[in-house]
Amino acid sequence: MHTYRILTAFAVLLVLSAWIMAPKWANNFQPYEQTIPHTSLSFGMIPIPGGVFKMGSEKGEADEAPVHEVHLDPFWMGTHEVTWDLYEMFLDKNFEASVSEQPLTSVVDGLTRPSIPYLDMTFGMGKNNKPAIGMTQYGAIQFCRWLYLKTGIFYRLPTEAEWEYASRAGASTAYFFGDDPKELDKYAWFGANAGETTQEIGKKLPNPWGLYDIYGNVNEWTIDHYEADSYQKRAGAATKNPLLISEDLYPKVLRGGSYKSTAEELRSANRVASTAQWKRIDPQIPKSQWWFPEAPFVGMRVVRPVTPPSLEEIENYYGTLPEEDY
Length: 326
Prior knowledge:
By secondary structure, this protein is α+β, with helices and mostly antiparallel strands. It contains eight helices and eleven strands. Helix content is 23%, strand content 14%. Helix 2 crosses helix 3 (93-99).
């Protein structure tokens, strides 16, 4: 309880200081570079304008139908997938301390961090400028919490609707560039060109809104719980900022396809559901909250809402513990 009160008090100070000291551009909804304080590391954020789009597809899998109207508020989205150099600072406190120009604060120092994996979670594919992989949705959310404690800015995973909207970049075709999968080689690392491995971020062309590797390289976590008929429940009426939350551990939604995917699996409307099979070889009982040892194709990208949530909502988002997984 004492630790929770310290975290809460520190979170209040972060929110207040971020508001008081916010740079002028914060009111202008522009691209920006988020620096990790007291380090040389940073990541880019691109503004995604709010708007209306048609979500889903009538030509894909059954869980993509029906196409329905969705209204979204504006947000920023990471220009790239989260890389190992960023994720490893969260993963390993000693590594973070070694690259930080100042001692870690007591709250960041006391942050609950992932267990050090018993496997090489790069699976031999390397880390240099490559996307971090194999984390659970809970691990991805706690990385966002680490970012919040470091920067005072609320970052989270995208909703499923936000991800599809951002990937489409105004297009209603299968891909943001049209319907011809032969064009994918310009924009994505996938089964046909990736050589069975993750690739360095930003080597392909971005989509029209400036998002790199939005297709391929690694599947990206969303917040949403997966239901095959969730679109049917939204049919017939416009939906604003849809989000499906469940305390159940499985399945959750991932988007975008990976270095292993077919061209069909990279379509903007394609949905992927997480599964307990991704922890099958984990010898721990209960299974790890942090790692999917059989999912080297899973990664993440962060978003930042233009209107930040309340402190209570932030605490609920970061503080919800997953159920034990046997």
